[in-house]
Fold this protein.
Amino acid sequence: MPPVVIVFARAPRPGTTKTRLVPALGRRGAADLYRCFLLDTLANVCGLDAAVIVAAAEASDLEPVAALARSVCPEAALTLQEGDDLGERMASAVKRALSDGHPRAVVIGSDSPSLPPDIVGQALEIGSDRDLVVGPCFDGGYYLIGMRKLERDVFAGIQWSSSTVLSETLRRAQERGLSVALLDPWYDVDTPEDLGILRSHLAMLAETAREVPCPRTWDFLRSIPGGGQT
């Protein structure tokens, strides 16, 4: 079986999705932008030499997330996240994928729409001979984690949504003697400030005639005054 990319996702609902972007975009705008994030992320990973699993956050997300996935990556499988916190949910998703026979699994979110798919491809390739592959975020977290065998301890006791997620994860990996590969650092888009970085980044790519890896996101940002910047 091929390796697998597991995309964590939720339904784009106004008022509950990307709430930290509401001051810049409004409730509807934040949800619409996240819809673009998810579609671009799925379209990019669908082109890789890997299976794709979309893991919905809640049972009520399954149907709307499935509809979005079918529109850009019809071969993707759908599952439901299980666990009380993010670590448990990632561990559960990795365990299920590896138990199904995939030789390695990579988990990504849908908050880094500008992430080049080549970086995810590198994670899949590097993961064949490393215990752990991690994509560091500039905010101290990570945008990707990959394993060839479930290493549950690297998810346990982490203070999620903090600036110490990456350092805590790497410390736990070191304590277990795991071989670790670090990918290029990238950024998530959670706040209006992050949105400004994304807007500037994509504008620079477009102005220099380079490929924009998230065309739906770019089209949305160009359609609103100021590109969502505050």
